[in-house]
Design a protein that fits this description.
By secondary structure, this protein is α+β, with helices and mostly antiparallel strands. The chain has helices spanning 71-84, 91-108, 148-161, 184-199, 216-229, 240-244, 251-263, 288-291, 359-368, 374-381, 385-394, and strands spanning 2-3, 12-17, 20-25, 30-40, 43-52, 59-67, 126-129, 132-133, 137-142, 169-170, 174-179, 208-211, 232-238, 267-273, 295-301, 309-319, 328-334, 340-345, 372-373, 400-404, 412-415.
Length: 421
């Protein structure tokens, strides 16, 4: 909560609180709350609540949605409050000044920062290294049934519990899971299975769960209050379609969603779908679902998995603050006792997903099992012989080694240092 600088001559105090603003009138024993503010044309709509703290009739005395910028709305409210609580002498001043102060503070926004002399943190801060940057929005997308929700639950579990794996290191913090698709029972079972798969026993992690049915932008005030009260560090939104509250293909829908998300000032991970038609490397909907988040990952599922196993590849499709990561593989084993064991694996072991690897990595993985000619590599990797030759020549002496050029025989290639790749 932020209290604005007080003027001893003013009979009111304006505070920026979780989800909105509060104006306190000490002498009049009145508090005016404004939440869920939204600019509409030249006006500013808000849910306004008025509390009276006097002995006569303490508590909530008014609540409705109104246009703070409308003189008519203010006059109507003033008249109603004069009839309800005539013991407050200056309802004109209370209503007029509260609306004006809140409106002006809303328009003022965040203060400017002079960058000269500003001390920034060195390097990138991570909430889950190397996947989720601290304070930034990330989108994870894929077809239905690819395991997206299992993967984000696993990430949330690692952050909440502070568990370091071979390939990921969290900065531990509280996680808020905004669920637009499932139920608390389903998420509870999922988190318990992950916990037991990791430790063999124990209760579910202390992830804060919220069942959601209204768009994020509409509920951002209440969500901000939860973020503040529970010291939330990471927000998971599952999923973008119902959370955005409109047609995902419309630019304004995506912009409104990410604007609301940004106002929360926490690390976020949004689950989204990918289009059935169009570029599968982008989330479904407006281009802003790709452009506005700082990082984007695609999830693909292997169709060659063993029974009770979910094999998925995580492909880094977009990064604003660094290079794209190499694809990562995950194996979810669903055990007879209900536990879920999660393992990291090389994407190269997922035979139907190796196309997500770069040509260089595909050639590298093919040579890892033994020396081959260009034609053999082309047949195994699905890369044309000319492109295979170009890859080998580009990294010859750095990654690949030309082993022989016997007259009349194809050149044989191998890895320069297999154990170091």
């Amino acid at each position: 909560m932020t209290t604005l600088p007080a003027n001893p001559e003013k009979p009111w105090k304006l505070e920026v609180v979780a989800g909105g603003y509060r104006v306190t009138w000490l002498d009049a024993q009145v508090q005016v709350m404004a939440e869920r503010l939204k600019q509409e044309g030249d006006g500013l709509k808000a849910d306004v609540a008025i509390y009276y703290t006097g002995a006569a009739s303490p508590g909530l005395v008014y609540k409705d949605r109104m246009n703070l910028a409308s003189g008519q709305a203010r006059r109507s409210l003033r008249k109603e409050m004069m009839e309800r609580l005539p013991e407050v002498e200056d309802w004109y001043g209370v209503i007029q000044r509260s609306c004006v102060e809140i409106w002006e503070e809303w328009r003022r926004g965040e203060p400017g920062i002079i960058l000269k002399g500003y001390i920034a943190e060195e390097g990138i801060r991570w909430r889950l290294e190397p996947l989720l940057q601290e304070g930034q929005a990330t989108v994870l997308f894929g077809d239905g049934g690819t395991g997206k929700s299992y993967l984000v639950a696993y990430f949330a579990y690692l952050i909440q519990e502070g568990i370091v794996t071979r390939h990921m290191a969290p900065d531990p913090g509280n996680v808020l899971y905004l669920d637009y698709e499932a139920t608390a029972d389903e998420l509870w079972r999922r988190f318990r299975a992950l916990r037991r798969g990791e430790l063999g026993e124990g209760d579910v992690p202390r992830v804060l769960y919220r069942y959601c049915s209204q768009p994020l932008a509409y509920e951002v005030g209440e969500i901000q209050r939860m973020v503040t009260e529970h010291d939330i560090s990471c927000l998971v939104v599952d999923s973008a379609g119902p959370a955005c509250g409109g047609n995902p293909a419309e630019p304004q829908t995506a912009i409104a969603y990410f604007t609301a998300l940004r106002s929360l000032k926490v690390t976020s991970l949004t689950v989204a779908h990918q289009p059935k038609h169009g570029d599968p490397r982008h989330p479904f909907g407006s281009v802003f679902w790709y452009n506005l988040p700082r990082s984007g990952y695609q999830v693909r599922r292997s169709t060659e998995s063993e029974p009770d196993v979910l094999d998925i590849a995580l492909i880094h499709r977009k990064s604003n603050n660094g290079r794209l990561l190499k694809p990562m593989g995950f194996k979810f084993r669903f055990m007879e006792g209900g536990e879920i064991k999660v393992e990291h694996q090389a994407v190269s072991t997922l035979v139907d997903l190796t196309d997500v690897l770069s040509m260089t990595d595909r050639v590298t993985e093919a040579l890892r099992v033994g020396q081959k000619t260009i034609q053999e590599l082309a047949e195994e990797t699905g890369i044309t012989a000319n492109l295979t030759r170009a890859v080998l020549n580009r990294y010859a002496g750095k990654r690949f080694l030309r082993l022989g050029t016997n007259p009349g025989k194809p050149t044989v290639w191998g890895l320069l240092s297999p154990e170091s790749l």
